[in-house]
Each structure stands twice: as C-alpha cells, then as structure tokens.
Amino acid sequence: MAFTIDDWSQDFKSVSSTVSQLLSTPLPLPPTSLPNCTRAISRLRLRLTEVQTSPENFAITPPELAKFNVMLNNLEGQFESLKSYSSKPIVGSGGGGGDKSQNAYMQTTQTVMEAQDDMLDELGSGISRLHDQAQMINDESNLHVKLLDDMEGGVEAATMGLRAEAKHAEKIREQSSVCKLYIVIAGLTGLLVFLLVMGFSH
C-alpha cells in the first residue's frame, strides 16, 4: 500500500481548493492549470478505485467510502464546469460583456457548489444515523451475550448441584446397604449363640 486514506484526503483537499480558486479566476486561466488538475483528479480516482477494491487494507467503512466517492464525483463535476468556463471566448472589456458572463457563470457555479455541499451534509447525517444504529445493535448484542453468559453460569451451577446431590444420594445408599449387612450379621450371630446354648444344654 503506497498511500493511506489520510494521504488521499489531503490530496483531495488540495485539488478541491485549486479548482475552487480557478473557478473564481478571471480568464484566461494559466496554461498549465487544467492539465495539472486533470492529472491530479485522475490520480484521486485511481487511488479511490484501489481503496474500493481492497477496503480492508485501508481501515475504511463502507459509509465513509461512499462519502469519498460522492465528494470525488462532485469535484469531477466542478472540474468539468471549469473546463467549460475556460473554453468560453474572452470578450473585450469595452462592452462589459465578459464581466457579466463571468459573473453569471460564477453565480451558477456557486449555486451548484452549495447544492453539492447540501448533499454532502445530508450524506454525513445519514452516516451519523447509521453509526448510531450500529452502536445500538452492538449494545444489544453485548447485552444478549451477557444474558447468555449468565444463563450458562446458572446452568453450570445447577449441573454441579445435581452432581453433588447424586453423590450424596449414592453415599446414603451405600451407608444403608452397610447398615442392613450389619443387621444380618447381628441376627446370624444371635442365632449362632442360641444354637450353641441349646447344644450345651443337652
């Protein structure tokens, strides 16, 4: 990865600022301005495509990626307007037509930029709502996990209790068997003594 998403953001801000300045620059524009912007915007598009291909390498979420894509689309639209503006014929200053044309164009461009800003604001609000919903889902998931853990602990405790009771019952059963055995032995011993006494008496 030769660049980071922060690098892309910084490049975008720089190119966007340049395009905005050129839109307010009187004609003719500097001869290298349009080619430089073309190369810069193409590089932004190429890098954003790379990010879209492997977003996991750039630690970027789908909503953020969608926002960057809208931003770049808007910038490309502004640049197309700039190219259209720069291709207009320059009218001599005597009639004042050039100033009127430029002012009208700048006003139209400003309106478009404001509309694009509104779109970005709306997109940002949507991303914030998605983030809040994701946070709520995460909180609910954590609660469910905690409940399952508590339930598992309760089941384990109950199982251990049942095992202890089973051992206790087994011990009582064994003790009961031994007690019966002692009774039988005592009975047989008594019978033996009785027989011996009877034998000696004869």
Biggest sheet, open or closed, and with what strands and sense?
Answer: none
Low-pLDDT residue intervals, each spanning 5 or more residues: 93-97
Which percent range fits the helix content? over 70%
Q: Strand content of the residues, in percent?
A: under 5%
Number of DSSP E strands: 0
What is the H-and-E element order?
HHHH
Compute the average pLDDT. 80
Q: What distance lies between the first and last C-alpha atoms, to the nearest angstrom? A: 115 Å
Mass-distribution shape: rod-shaped
Which class of secondary structure composition applies to the elements? mainly alpha
Radius of gyration: 44 Å
Helices, by number, come to: 4
What features would you describe in this structure?
This protein is mainly α and 202 residues long. The chain has a domain at 5-135. 84% of the residues lie in helices and 0% in strands. It is built from 4 helices and no strands. It has helices at residues 5-23, 33-53, 62-86, 97-201. α1 packs antiparallel against α2 (33-53), α2 (33-53) runs antiparallel to α3 (62-86) and α3 runs antiparallel to α4 (97-201). The longest helix is centred in the last third of the chain and has 105 residues, at 97-201. Mean pLDDT is 80; it is low at 93-97.
